[in-house]
Specification:
This protein is of the alpha/beta class. It folds into 2 domains: about 5-220, P-loop containing nucleotide triphosphate hydrolases (Rossmann fold, 3-Layer(aba) Sandwich), CATH 3.40.50; about 225-270, no CATH class. The protein has 10 helices and 14 strands. The strands form 3 sheets. A 6-stranded mixed β-sheet has the order 6-7-8-3-9-10, with helices on both faces. The chain has a 4-stranded antiparallel β-sheet with strand order 2-1-4-5. A 4-stranded antiparallel β-sheet has the order 12-13-11-14.
Length: about 290
């Protein structure tokens, strides 16, 4: 299975939201990384055929997704950033309701609902109303409903928004486990969501892919641009005026800085191994 972008462009009036994107996705987990406004959500809506391309093509195994109609929708699972739910439904009722909207037979829906609630550790709360759920539980229920039709393409738009660090870690493990035989696209501006689990990173800025590849491949492109500096605390403000500081560790009046710079920041600076977060800071200007 291949999902191919061929010169994909989307305009809003005079503004280009997605600009001539070319890429081919195969089964695996893709981290779509970029700041808010980079074009990620627009691209996701194009993939889900919610929006139409202004020019270019999105192809599934060489067929236009717009021409596949119901066949494409049956392959697709989509969790939007603002996942809507009915607070007075139980988790089980909500799953049955979503199954009916997807046109699934009731016997299959019941079996699949049981499997998914078990998979997502929601069996014990299957008959609790959704309004009593934590943010992490609601997000897991959101994933469960996207998986009802066992989609081969799973699209997640900022799925960890509002989750605490523990819930975010559990969510990452869950998504990584689902990526073995399907295309998963996880859109985020939080580097840690994808750094360790994505097979490939698609870094997007101003509607274009500016970097693509594994986290290690992308990080190598930043070699010679990440530095360790040790200096007195009183010098920190001056350094921050001149350079992007990715991290700072203070101890006994001395501060150790992780600095992003195209050139050596000072004579004592030591070049260190880049991380994906450093690249994000380099291109988008603030740490996430």
């Amino acid at each position: 299975m291949e999902l191919q972008f061929v010169n994909v462009t989307r305009n809003y009036g005079g503004k280009i939201a997605v600009n001539r994107v070319n890429y081919t996705l195969k089964p695996g987990l893709y981290g779509l990384l970029g700041a808010n406004g980079a074009g990620k959500t627009t691209l996701i809506r194009l993939i889900c055929n919610v929006l139409k391309v202004s020019s270019g093509e999105i192809l599934l195994d060489d067929k236009h997704i717009s021409s596949l109609g119901e066949q494409y929708r049956e392959l697709l699972g989509y969790l939007p950033q603002d996942f809507g739910y009915y607070p007075d439904f139980t988790a089980q009722e909500f799953m049955y309701y979503m199954a009916s909207l997807k046109g699934l037979k009731i016997t299959y829906a019941r079996k699949r609902t049981k499997e998914l609630l078990e998979l997502l550790n929601l069996s014990d709360v299957a008959k609790r109303k959704i309004r009593t759920f934590s943010g992490g539980m609601r997000q897991r229920l959101g994933i469960a409903q996207t998986m009802l039709n066992n989609p081969k393409i799973l699209v997640l738009d900022e799925p960890t928004a509002g989750l605490d660090p523990k819930e975010r870690m559990k969510f990452r493990r869950l998504i990584a486990g689902l990526a073995k035989d399907r295309i998963i696209i996880l859109s985020t501006h939080i580097v840690s969501d994808i750094e360790d689990i994505a097979d490939e990173i698609l870094m997007m800025k101003d509607g274009e892919f500016i970097l693509t590849g594994t986290a290690d491949e992308i990080s190598r492109k930043m070699e010679g641009k990440v530095w360790k500096i040790i200096l007195p605390e009183e010098d920190l403000e001056e350094v921050e005026k001149k350079f992007s500081v990715a991290n700072a560790h203070q101890h006994d009046g001395i501060i150790e800085l992780r600095v992003i710079s195209d050139t050596k920041p000072n004579v004592d600076a030591e070049s260190i191994k880049p991380r994906l977060e450093d690249i994000y800071l380099y291109y988008f200007g603030k740490k996430q």
